[in-house]
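note to self — DONT lose this again. spent like an hour looking for the file last time. sequence + predicted structure for the chain T wanted, 202 res
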Amino acid sequence: MFLLLIANLFAAIAWLLIFGLKTVNFWWGMASASGLLAIWSIIYAKGDRKFFFDFRLSYIVWGIGSAAILYIVFWIGGAVSTRIFGFASSQIDSIYANKAQMNPWILGLLLLFWIGPAEEIFWRGMGQRVLSKWFGSNVGWILGALVYTMVHLWAANFILFMAALIGGLYWGWLYKRFGSLWPGIISHALWDLVVFIIVPLK
C-alpha cells in the first residue's frame, strides 16, 4: 500500500504540472508520466503480471463494444450538458484545445499505443488491484475510480472531472468483471483515438 501511495503522489504532482500549471507539452507530459507509472506498475506487480495481463480473443470484442458504448454515453452527455450548463461548451473547447500541441497523426498513435494502455496499466493494474486486495473488489473499484478522478481536479474543469469519474468507473468495472487489463486497455485506447481524433465530440 505504501508504494501505491508514493505512486499516487507522483501522479498527483505530474497531473498538476500537466493539467494545472501547464508547464510542459500536454501530450508529451501525459506520455511520460503515464509511461513511467505503467513501468513502475509492471515491476511492482511481480507474481500478478500473468493474472492481469491474461488475454482472450473475447476481450477484443468487449474492448471495441465498450469503447463504442462509452462514446455514445459521452456524446449524449455532451449534448445534454451544453444545454443545461452555460459553461460546458467553453470547458469542452478547452479540453480539445490541447490537440493543437501535436500533429494529429502522431497524437493518434500515441493515444492508441501508449497513453491509453499506460493509464490502464497504472490506474487499474496497480491502483485498483492493490485497493481491491485491501478493501475488497467493490470498494477497491470505487476507490480506484475516485483516485483517478481526483487527480483531474487540477484542470479546474467540471466537464473533464465528470468525464474522468465516468471513465474511471467504467474501465474499473471492466477490470473488476474480467480480472484482466485487456478489455480496459482496448476500450480506453480506442475511445481516446475516436473521441480526440476520428470523431471528436466537438
